[in-house]
Amino acid sequence: xxxxxxxxxxxxxxxxxxxxxxxxxxxxxxxxxxxxxxxxxxxxxxxxxxxxxxxxxxxxxxxxxxxxxxxxxxxxxxxxxxxxxxxxxxxxxxxxxxxxxxxxxxxxxxxxxxxxxxxxxxxxxxxxxxxxxxxxxxxxxxxxxxxxxxxxxxxxxxxxxxxxxxxxxxxxxxxxxxx
Amino acid sequence: xxxxxxxxxxxxxxxxxxxxxxxxxxxxxxxxxxxxxxxxxxxxxxxxxxxxxxxxxxxxxxxxxxxxxxxxxxxxxxxxxxxxxxxxxxxxxxxxxxxxxxxxxxx
Lengths: 179, 107
Hints:
The structure holds 2 protein chains of 2 kinds.
Chain A: E1 2-6, H1 14-26, E2 29-35, E3 38-43, E4 49-55, H2 63-74, E5 78-83, E6 86-92, H3 104-139, H4 147-175
Antiparallel strand pairs in A: 1-3, 2-3, 4-6, 5-6
Helix pairs in contact in A: 3-4
Chain B: H1 8-16, E1 21-22, H2 23-33, H3 42-55, E2 58-60, E3 71-74, H4 76-101
Antiparallel strand pairs in B: 1-3, 2-3
């Protein structure tokens, strides 16, 4: 039996998303395919799979990514699907604890990658927002009021950047003591 | 030889690659060597392997069968770095022994 859940989770909360998907897997609902804010689950034995996600360094169809997926496959990791550059994986719990990254350095690199992406989206929306509101100011063209939407999105992304920055800072501080 | 301490992951990768092996082999080897303590996650390992190849510390083993898994081995430079780190760790260990357990190791 399949079950589809629609849920809005932003990229900076990927760790919460991962935790939620693992809770579902522990209950016997393993992620089987993904879309934008859409999650499809299949019934499995409770705890049969563990889920992880990652923002890829390249697009999912880039040769680098294909090589990477092949490497993951050799370690028992099944690629469930991708949404933009986000990749979702699962692995049998019997193969041991499953994480994509096991040390601070690689975790930090991953967080910085996400931070850049969110910053790019924030910047793009800021530009679009200001530009459209300026047009509205000049021409009173109501459609240009959509610029407000862009600015709201930009503000949301800034909140995300702040959250990501805190995560990076925590890792950095720990890094002064532990590897 | 090394600029600063190697990460545990890099140390165990270099150590493993004294014998040519592929990625999954390195993961298993690091786990066995460390008595199950060190588990290299696939993403971390993949990133480290790419960096180490770029640095010239390890290299791909030419393999006629292109479709198969990539095998890696340590280079001479990598071996020098590894030996340098091994000596550094030895110094840490030795000083710890001296000060924690006393000069003659009986305290």
